[in-house]
C-alpha cells in the first residue's frame, strides 16, 4: 500500500531520513520489506515545519516515483526541519495525481495514511456527506485517506485528536457494515499540528499494517556510547515509521495492535485505541 515516516526532535536535513539510512524511505519506495507491495511508485510527498516557528507547514508533492525525482533529492539536501512527515504512495485504485499524494494539509495540520477503506466507492457517498460543509470545500482529491482526514477534522481533531480519530474509525466501520462491507478499515496514520505527533495503528480485522517507533535516545546512548549520531540529537528526538530504517539492535519497537501514540515534549504516550460512534 504505502510507506511513511514521522520525525520530531533536533532539526535535521530531510535527507538524513529520506536518503541516508540503509533502509531509507527512498529505498523502501523500491524495496519495501514489510509492505503489501514491494514497490511504492505512485507519487510521494513531504510536509515540514520550519525552524522559524511558523505554524503553517510547507508541502512538496509529486506524482512520479520518489526514487527518480531530482527535485526531491535537491530539496532534501537543503531543507532542515524539527518536525516533518514523509510518504511514498502505492495507489489502492484512485488516480495518480498531485491532489491524491500525501501529506494532506488543513491549516496547521498534516495527515498521512497507509491502508484503505474497503469498498470505498460503495461507502464514499455516505462518508463524504458526513463531512462538515465548511471542510468539504477544502477536499480536492479523490482518496479515502483525504476523506478520513476531513472526517477526523469534522469530529474534533483540532480539539481532541485521539477521540476524533476514534470517532472517525467508528463512523467508517458503521457505514461499511451497513453496506455489507466486512472489515471496513485498515490503517496506520500519523497526524500533527506542528507541536505533537499522533500515530495510530488499527484495522477492523485486527491484523494491521506494520508500524514502529524509535527507542528513547537516552536508552540508545547507553547501548551505543560510541555512536556519534546519537550524541548529536536531543533526548526528545523520536521517529515513527512503517518499517525500520536500519538494523541497529534495539533501536525500533513495534507499535502494538489497536494502539495510538503521542510524541510530545516530556513523556510520550502509548495507549489503547477504541473506535466509537460520533
TrEMBL record:
GO molecular function: transferase activity
Domain Glutamine amidotransferase type-2 stretches: 2-244
Coiled-coil ranges (or none): none
Family annotation (Pfam families): GATase_4
UniProt keywords, alphabetically: Glutamine amidotransferase, Transferase
InterPro entries named among the record's database cross-references: EgtC-like (IPR026869), Gamma-glu_amide_hydrolase (IPR052373), GATase_2_dom (IPR017932), Ntn_hydrolases_N (IPR029055)
Protein name: Glutamine amidotransferase
Provenance organism: Krasilnikovia cinnamomea
